[in-house]
Design brief:
This protein has about 230 residues and is mostly helical. The protein has a domain at about 140-225. It is about 75% helix and about 0% strand. The protein is built from eleven helices and two strands. Strands 1-2 form a two-stranded antiparallel sheet. The relative contact order is 0.09.
C-alpha cells in the first residue's frame, strides 16, 4: 500500500467518524443551549477534531489546481447556501435564541474547517493546518466573542454596562460549575490566549525544550505528518 493510499484511507476514516459523531450530536438530547457537563462539552468537539485530521492527512498535493479551487468553492457553498439561507429563515420566523445559537454553534466550526481546507489546498503543511485548527477552536471557545459582544452593546445601547455575572456564557460555566463573575471571565479568556501563545511557541520556536527533546529522540525528523 502506497503512502498516498494510506493517507486517503485515514482521511476517509476520519470523515466517517466526524460525520457519525456530528449526526449523533444533532439528534442528541444533550444538544442544547445549556451544557450539562464537561463530558458533553468535549464530545461536541469530536466532529471538529476528526474533520481537521481528515483535512491534514489527505494528500492535496496530488490534486490538480482546478479541482482544489472547486473544493474550496464547494466549502464556501455549503456555508452560503445552507448557513446563510437558514440564518435568513430563522430571522423571518423569529425562532428562539436557543435555535439560533445552536445554528451558530454548527456554522462557526465549519468556517474554521473551510479555512483549514483552503490552507491545505494552498500548500500549507499538515502540521501547520493542525496547529491552525487547534488554536482556532481554542480562540472560539475562549469567550472573546462574549466580551466583544458586550462592547458592541456599549457602542449601541446608551448607558449599557458589562454585567457583573456572565450567566449566559454556558461554555464558561461548565468549567467552573457555576456562573463566572466579570473578572473571572476576563481571566478565563486570558488563559485561552496564553494557551494559544504557548502552542505557537512550542510548535515554532527553534529553541524550546520540547522541540529539542523530540529532535534528540528522532521524532521530528521521522514524523511524516510534519512534512
Amino acid at each position: 500500500m502506497t503512502k498516498n493510499v494510506k493517507d486517503i484511507l485515514i482521511s476517509v476514516f476520519c470523515v466517517l467518524i466526524a460525520g457519525a459523531a456530528a449526526l449523533f450530536i444533532l439528534s442528541w438530547d444533550e444538544h442544547a443551549l445549556k451544557i450539562a457537563n464537561l463530558g458533553v462539552f468535549f464530545f461536541k468537539l469530536v466532529p471538529f477534531v476528526f474533520a481537521i485530521m481528515a483535512i491534514c492527512f489527505f494528500p492535496f498535493e496530488k490534486i490538480s489546481t482546478p479541482v482544489k479551487l472547486l473544493f474550496c468553492v464547494s466549502a464556501f457553498g455549503v456555508f452560503f447556501c445552507y448557513g446563510v439561507a437558514k440564518l435568513i429563515y430563522y430571522f423571518i420566523e423569529q425562532v428562539t435564541y436557543e435555535e439560533f445559537y445552536l445554528l451558530l454553534q454548527l456554522l462557526t466550526p465549519f468556517i474554521i474547517l473551510a479555512l483549514a481546507f483552503a490552507l491545505r489546498c494552498g500548500g500549507m503543511k499538515s502540521k501547520d493546518v493542525g496547529i491552525f485548527g487547534a488554536i482556532s477552536i481554542i480562540f472560539m471557545i475562549s469567550g472573546i466573542e462574549d466580551l466583544t459582544s458586550q462592547y458592541v452593546r456599549i457602542a449601541i445601547v446608551p448607558g449599557y454596562q458589562i454585567p457583573e455575572n456572565w450567566d449566559w456564557a454556558n461554555h464558561m460555566t461548565v468549567f467552573l460549575g457555576r456562573v463566572l463573575t466579570k473578572n473571572e471571565a476576563y481571566i478565563f479568556i486570558a488563559v485561552h490566549f496564553v494557551i494559544i501563545a504557548l502552542i505557537l511557541y512550542l510548535a515554532y520556536s527553534k529553541n524550546n525544550p520540547l522541540k529539542r527533546l523530540l529532535k534528540s529522540k528522532g521524532v521530528l525528523e521521522n514524523n511524516e505528518f510534519n512534512k
